[in-house]
Automatic annotation (TrEMBL):
Source organism superkingdom: Bacteria
Any matching Pfam family: PNPOx_N
Cofactors that this protein relies on: FMN
InterPro entries (alphabetical): Pyridox_Oxase, Pyridox_Oxase_N, Split_barrel_FMN-bd
Boundaries of every Pyridoxamine 5'-phosphate oxidase N-terminal domain copy: 39-119
Alphabetical keyword list: Flavoprotein, FMN, Oxidoreductase
Gene3D superfamilies tied to this protein: Electron Transport, Fmn-binding Protein, Chain A (2.30.110.10)
Name of the featured protein: Pyridoxamine 5'-phosphate oxidase
Length: 195
C-alpha cells in the first residue's frame, strides 16, 4: 500500500518538474483569487506558469504583471488556491496558501536576471493587463515600446510567492483512485480522504 509520505514526496516532485525548464503537464496552473470591487464575492481564476517550487519553505512562485487585477486582489486578500492537472496520468494537484508580493528588490532583480528573456518582453507593454484596446495589434509590445523609463519592463515585473498550507493529491487512474490531503502546522500532516 502506498504510504502518505510517498504521496507527499510525489507532490513535491511533480511541483519541481512543473517549475523546471522543460514544459510539462504541471507547468500551467489555474490560480484562483477572491474578487474585489465590482467582482467582490466572485472567484477569479486564470492560468499562470509555475516558476519555482521550494519544498523546504513549503512555497511555490509565479511571475506576473504588478498592474494586473490578480495583484490588487492578492493585496486585498492574500489567500489563493491553485490547481494543476496532469491529464496523461489522471492526476490533479490542488494547493492553497497565502501570497506574498515580492518587495525585496534584490530578490526581484535576481529572479528577473535568471528568467529567460522571451518571457520578459511582455512586461514592456505600457498597457496594464485588462486595458481596453481599439485593436488587438495596439497591445503588441513592439507597437508602442514601453513606459517604464529604462525600457526593459522591469518596473512591471512581479514575483508572487505562495506559502502553502494545504496540498491535495487526487489520482483517478484505474490503478490509483486515491486522494490525500496534507495540512501544515508545525510540519505537514497527511490523511487519506474519499475521492
Ligand atoms: C498559457 C498561458 C500562460 C500564462 N501564464 C501567465 C503567468 O505566468 N502569469 C500571469 O500573470 N499571467 C499568465 N497568463 C495570463 C493569465 O492567464 C491572465 O489572463 C492574465 O494574467 C490577467 O489575469 P488577471 O486580470 O486576473 O490578473 C497566462 C495565460 C496563458 C494562456
Amino acid at each position: 500500500m502506498t504510504a502518505l509520505n510517498d504521496i507527499h514526496a510525489a507532490i513535491w516532485k511533480a511541483l519541481a518538474t512543473g517549475a523546471g525548464p522543460q514544459r510539462s503537464p504541471l507547468t500551467m496552473w489555474q490560480a484562483a483569487t477572491n474578487g474585489i470591487g465590482e467582482a467582490a464575492g466572485m472567484p477569479q481564476v486564470r492560468t499562470v506558469v509555475l516558476r519555482d517550487a521550494d519544498q523546504t519553505g513549503g512555497a511555490i512562485s509565479f511571475h506576473t504583471d504588478v498592474r494586473s487585477a490578480k495583484v490588487a486582489q492578492l493585496r486585498a486578500d492574500p489567500r489563493i488556491a491553485l490547481t494543476g492537472l496532469d491529464l496523461g496520468n489522471l492526476l490533479q494537484i490542488r494547493l492553497e496558501g497565502r501570497a506574498q508580493i515580492c518587495a525585496d528588490e534584490a530578490e526581484r532583480r535576481a529572479v528577473w536576471n535568471a528568467a529567460r528573456q522571451h518571457t520578459l518582453i511582455l512586461y514592456r507593454t505600457p498597457f496594464a493587463p485588462g486595458t481596453p484596446l481599439g485593436t488587438p495589434e495596439a497591445g503588441h509590445v513592439d507597437a508602442r515600446g514601453d513606459d517604464d523609463g529604462d525600457g526593459d519592463g522591469y518596473a512591471n515585473f512581479c514575483v508572487v510567492r505562495v506559502v502553502l498550507d494545504r496540498l491535495e493529491y487526487l489520482d483517478i487512474s484505474p490503478d490509483g483512485h486515491r486522494r490525500a490531503v496534507f495540512r501544515r502546522d508545525d510540519g505537514w500532516h497527511g490523511a487519506w480522504i474519499a475521492p
